[in-house]
């Protein structure tokens, strides 16, 4: 079957847009093909700095013929309805329609046959629409073509469109269309400098091979592999080691069509700057990788650059040019760093009085005071020294006003640690200056130093409570203040450090420190707790755990100790994986369903203790005895926070519950016996609530 080759050749596409653009092109074309009845075998898209390319193979040469039936009016319907039916279906008279008998009457049916079109004609119709409606995040229009103003909006000026279609065994045809005066053809171009001449291509295999011969590596992954392998080899050969950076690798591969890896150097004196600042300088300004000594693990005064050309002089001029740019950048960074060291962190704090954190939540200075107070309250709860936690909270934000962080925002916190150590602060205080922002994502590490934990919790909880107080909660996909991330950070800090903390009390304390008070201050901590429950469910789902178990535990009420919730959920999950757990859940669900039906029917609940004198069957007596024993045993285990033991106690209910449902008829003819048995079912439900609300658990 025929294959499609499409290339959109333009000026340089920003590296950050290339991967999504390639995916969008593949998705838009294949979706349209399927919608037109042209089901393909496979598709792959590619991007280089100057082109988007797509190959779709196994496309049928022609659309299938379509036969559809359209139901019309009843026989004897008004003439206006008949004429509308004939016009809509293309029939000349009712003699061409069939009659379909129906209980409601006899109806006219039109059989409409729509012959399929050649796939190449369909492509010529859909491709220009896709190009004109392509979803670039930013695009531009440019000058006139052939005396007419340009109308196409594209990321950069589009120069050529290659579009061929045909089977492997034959010469492909050009899919003929034009966009903004650009006619499709079979002509593309190689590397801008090393092979700029036009060349004719036929199909994908021919296209990819000719591009490679013209110094263009089409596949982005292949370019990444070349850069990575060559950089590793070049550094290893000189006794160094590449500092890997996947994000930078992705970007650099989008800047070159023919990657050539080289090594440059800078003066060793700049190694006095913190390594992260050197890396940020070289990475941000020149898109280069840094290199470390393989023995010491420290940065060296070398860097790796990726050129887009095989230079006649072996790249000496290119390396020298990069060195000339990096040198003053590092000089600036060194000046910023040394200047920052002259001012103590606490001496910068008065400036925060003029910086607004949020118009409803006051200044940054006010926020720092709140974090200090909250960190001091949290410190004893997490085993931290109160004075150190207070000092760390006092200094933690100060580096935001330094020259280095102003130039490289990504090193905020980290520079706070360096400056704190330089001015003789305690190591835990300095570490907290960096770590109070953590964890910033699921892959980020969680602080373990108690001082860092106290300040990190205070920072995140102040943010959450503050924005809850002014009713700026996340809605749908919108979360401008990253409150979901902050809540997940709190959960991980508590769970991974095994902390016992009452979120309701801490939230109430944080609320007390705010100058703004919500309309319903009493409701805020519990409302925020519900948000934590949702975030915990998300985290468990991402870990492959059952998020419905969180509902089952939270439904018990009064649960604001996240560590105990997590442990209870874990124990419940393991219990439900066992046969005893599965069968007991089924029994509890059955009891709850029967109770629900009968309570609705009688318009009453069946609370209260059953009357033992009304037990007539051994299965009733055995179940009642088991409930009493299990309730006591499970409650004792829960009080000791031994949730595994509590689940083991629950497992003892399974045999008597199974036997009860097998031998006992709940809705007995005797009204008193029926009521008593329903009360016994309610006892099952009450007993299991010692560990969880089983009605919230999905089957």
Task: Describe the protein in words.
- By secondary structure, this protein is α+β, with helices and mostly antiparallel strands.
- 49% of the residues lie in helices and 14% in strands.
- It has 25 helices and 18 strands.
- The strands form five sheets. Strands 1, 2, 3, 7, 8, 9 and 10 form a seven-stranded mixed β-sheet that branches.
- A hairpin with a 5-residue loop joins strand 15 (289-293) and strand 16 (299-307).
- Helix 11 packs across helix 15 (450-469), helix 15 crosses helix 17 (503-512) and helix 19 crosses helix 20 (562-577).
- The radius of gyration is 36 Å and the shape is flat.
- The two termini are 48 Å apart.
- The model has no long low-confidence stretch (mean pLDDT 92).
Summarize the structure.
The chain is α+β, with helices and mostly antiparallel strands and 699 residues long. It is 49% helix and 14% strand.
Write the layout of secondary structure elements.
Elements (H helix, E strand, L loop, with lengths): L2 E8 L4 H21 L6 E7 L2 E7 L8 E9 L4 H11 L8 E5 L2 E10 L4 H14 L25 E9 L6 E2 L3 E2 L2 E4 L1 E3 L8 E3 L3 H10 L6 H18 L2 E3 L3 H8 L6 E6 L9 H12 L2 E5 L5 E9 L8 H25 L4 H4 L7 E3 L3 E2 H19 L3 H10 L7 H5 L6 H9 L4 H9 L14 H20 L13 H14 L6 H10 L11 H19 L5 H7 L7 H16 L1 H24 L15 H22 L3 H9 L2 H10 L7 H18 L11
Parallel strand pairs: 7-10
Antiparallel strand pairs: 1-3, 1-7, 2-3, 4-6, 5-6, 7-8, 9-10, 11-12, 13-15, 14-16, 15-16, 17-18
Helix pairs in contact: 1-3, 5-6, 7-8, 10-11, 10-15, 11-14, 11-15, 13-14, 14-15, 15-16, 15-17, 16-18, 17-18, 19-20, 20-21, 20-23, 21-24, 21-25, 22-23, 22-24, 22-25
